[in-house]
Amino acid sequence: MNSMFTRIVRILLGLILVVFGLNKLMPSPFIPLPQLPPDAAAFMTSLASTGYVLKVVGILEVVIGALLLLKKWVAFALILLAPISLNILLFHMFLDASGMAVAIVIAALNGILIYKHWSQYRSLFL
C-alpha cells in the first residue's frame, strides 16, 4: 500500500480533487468552465439552481482531496469518492463527451487506489 506508485496516484488524485473542488466553491471559477452541450448545460443549470448540490460536491471533493493528501482515512475517502467519480464518468459519457479523458483518469485513479487498499474493504464483502 505504501509503494511509490500508490503514493503518486494518491497525491495526484488528491490534488485534482482539491483544485476542482475549490473551483466549484469560488464565486468566479479560476478554471474557466467550458461551453457545454445543451443537455449538459441544462443538467448543470438545474444542479446550480438548487443552491446546494454543487457546493456540497465541491466541499466533499476538497475534504476527500485533503484526506488523500494528508494520508488520513484513505480507505474511507476512497469510498466517499466512488459515487462522485462514477457520476463524473456517467455525466461525461452521456452528456459531455469532450471531458471524457479527465473523467476516465479520475475513475481510474480511484479504482487503482481502491484496489491497492482492498484488504481494508474485504470484511465488507464476507
UniProtKB/TrEMBL annotation:
<feature type="transmembrane region" description="Helical">
    <location>
        <begin position="51"/>
        <end position="70"/>
    </location>
</feature>
<keyword id="KW-0812">Transmembrane</keyword>
<feature type="transmembrane region" description="Helical">
    <location>
        <begin position="100"/>
        <end position="118"/>
    </location>
</feature>
<protein>
    <submittedName>
        <fullName>DoxX protein</fullName>
    </submittedName>
</protein>
<keyword id="KW-1133">Transmembrane helix</keyword>
<keyword id="KW-0472">Membrane</keyword>
<feature type="transmembrane region" description="Helical">
    <location>
        <begin position="75"/>
        <end position="94"/>
    </location>
</feature>
